[in-house]
Design goal:
The protein is built from 11 helices and 2 strands; from the N terminus they run ββααααααααααα. A hairpin with a 2-residue loop joins β1 and β2.
Length: 319
Amino acid sequence: MSTAPNISGIDLEGKMGTPSAIGVSADRISSAEASAKSPSKNLPATEQGSKKWATENLLYRIGADAGAAASAGVLIAPIITLIDRAIIENASGRNAMMPSIKASVKQLLFRPQQFIFSKPFGLIYMLYSSTYLTANTLDTMFSTIHSTPPSTTTAGLPKFLATSTTNMSLCLYKDSQFARLFGPPNSVPRPVPTASLALFAIRDSLTIFASFNLPPLLSKSFPGSDDAWDRAAVGKLSVAQFVAPAGVQLLSTPLHLLGLDLYNRGGKDISRASRWDRIRRDWAKSSLARMCRIVPAFGVGGVVNTKVRKELMGRIERP
């Protein structure tokens, strides 16, 4: 503190007041001196540099995070399951892409319980609901620590790192299982090569960045005001959440196809020219299929997750 308090005319820095003021007892002076040396005992918590966490309704907010993630996951899992299977069966030679999709759609329509309780569907649902849940809980954690509105707080870089770690680890497991389930016909399932897993990890890093971190930046470059976009019944951020993850598939699909080829045909005795021919053959249709897959995954799913969470958080925040 810059100056000590004056008690009954006595300045504790040594300046005396009127003689009658000397009647103040020594213990009161000692107490005042102790308080001056330890101001933190008399100041509120916010003035001491500490900040109270916003833990009110925390369990309800975590429930909102889980509900939004589960809603988005169950909505998008069916279409992603059939597309992922078609891409991998096409790459392995087990089945062409369109016949594979038709077979999966037929199963979904006429034997839905068999489709929904299958291992491929479970892997996809686990992957995306966990990714959304991680993103949601990171935002909730930051809003709790910094005492900011949970419906509008975003964790930025930590969110990217956490969602990337969750998504990539689960996606690597999912891809290894899909490759073994839908690999070359008459082949014996074997471990997925490390090189394939590394390529899948790079692919997923690009997708995660384009899904969670790029849309806010991209939306700012769109022409027109936010109000004009809102009046058109679609916001800038919602459009960016569709465009960004879909567009990046043109770059990430070759990595995906190379990783699958390393598993399907092995890493030996295959020339670079042969691998490039295989990638070039499947690049266009696989990119299109992955765009159709990514739009639900991080476009529709991301929008549904964001909107459901915002609505649920808004209800919790309202008195």
